[in-house]
């Protein structure tokens, strides 16, 4: 495992994670239309990148398996929240962002662990 590549990939993952969370938030506030493809792990840009870059290169690391699991939970929870929003349960959906934030915090902690390994 090349450490410089890992560091760069962690930075990219962080950026893509923030973008994913921002896009989800914009769906829950009606700024961006919900797109079913956004929630599919095979079609979501971050999930695709994660699979082809992080899992492909560092999949043997336990943190990567945990990150993958968290990403799947984050997408599934986001999809459920958007469905609530679409049914008119806007406040409930927005309140559910707390769970997204919890997953995001866990995601960031795992990225920090990977970063420490790279140093």
UniProtKB/TrEMBL annotation:
The keyword Kinase applies. Gene3D superfamilies: Aspartate receptor, ligand-binding domain (1.20.120.30). Keywords: Kinase, Transferase. It comes from the Bacteria. One of its GO terms (molecular function) is kinase activity. This is Histidine kinase. It comes from Hymenobacter ginkgonis.
């Amino acid at each position: 495992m090349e450490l410089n590549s890992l560091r760069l990939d962690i930075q990219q993952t962080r950026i893509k994670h923030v973008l994913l969370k921002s896009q989800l938030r914009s769906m829950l506030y009606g700024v961006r239309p919900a797109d079913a493809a956004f929630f599919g792990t095979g079609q979501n840009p971050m999930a695709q990148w994660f699979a082809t870059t992080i899992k492909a290169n560092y999949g043997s690391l336990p943190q990567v398996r945990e990150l993958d699991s968290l990403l799947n939970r984050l997408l599934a929870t986001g999809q459920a929240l958007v469905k609530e929003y679409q049914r008119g349960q806007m406040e409930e959906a927005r309140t559910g962002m707390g769970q997204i934030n919890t997953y995001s915090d866990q995601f960031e902690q795992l990225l920090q662990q990977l970063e420490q390994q790279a140093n």
